[in-house]
User: Fold this.
Amino acid sequence: MSDFVILTDSSADLGADMAAQLDVQVLPLSFTVQGTTYHNYPDNREMDPAAFYAMLRKGELATTSAVNVAQYTEALEPLLQGGKDVLILAFSSGLSATYSSSTVAVGELREKYPDRKLYTVDTLCASLGQGLLVYLAAKEREKGKSIEEVRDWVEEHKLNLCHQFTVDDLHFLKRGGRISATTAVLGSMLQIKPVLHVDDEGHLINIGKARGRAASLKALVDKMEITAIDPKEQMVFISHGDCLADAEMVAQMVKDRMGVQQVYINYVGPVIGAHSGPGTLALFYVGTER
Assistant:
């Protein structure tokens, strides 16, 4: 294996086992609920996701914070001192200041460690879309590719990482300014569920709507069937806002309809879940376009 470190952040929503399997390091973003700030580690050591979503369902509000320059520096410096090169795959600049912080830290540390290779990539991805890109980058590293080759591969392929989302509670999108209060109220009354994706600029965009939960989940799979590249050979990722049964149902749909063999399911972490709410369901795969 090429001797460099892949570093991402916890918005990738990779579980501790998957991060260890891929040999990637994960920096935690933070979230605050009931006046207490927690770090979103892959092993959920500070708060279990199910407990977090239970708090949201009771009406608690959560706020979130990006990885800052100091956190990046603290994580990167020991690696550089130990003779490691580092490739950072950061949360979409369209949704967070995390990538911006990484560029500042990288600029400062390159001057301090001129013999080390240090790169950061704006993945333009979120949740397990970012996680899937990290997974694929780690697989490229396993092939023996250099840090520059993996960086270039990620840049070339990141816009093929398709993100298809739906949410169950429109009021979380209203709080984030994604939809109006009127739309949230009427949509809730009529059981209208939005279908969203992350676009080529890394922003969360509403691209459609469905009447009822089952129709919204089917819409995610319908879109994948149109755009997925060779789905039988893909590892498909699914994240959920404490609605595992729905995630498993979508997993079965992609297996039945497209012959998908491998599916990885994990929670939408608190950092994204604070804005999307309980019942969020997201499907990620490699496709012809986002």
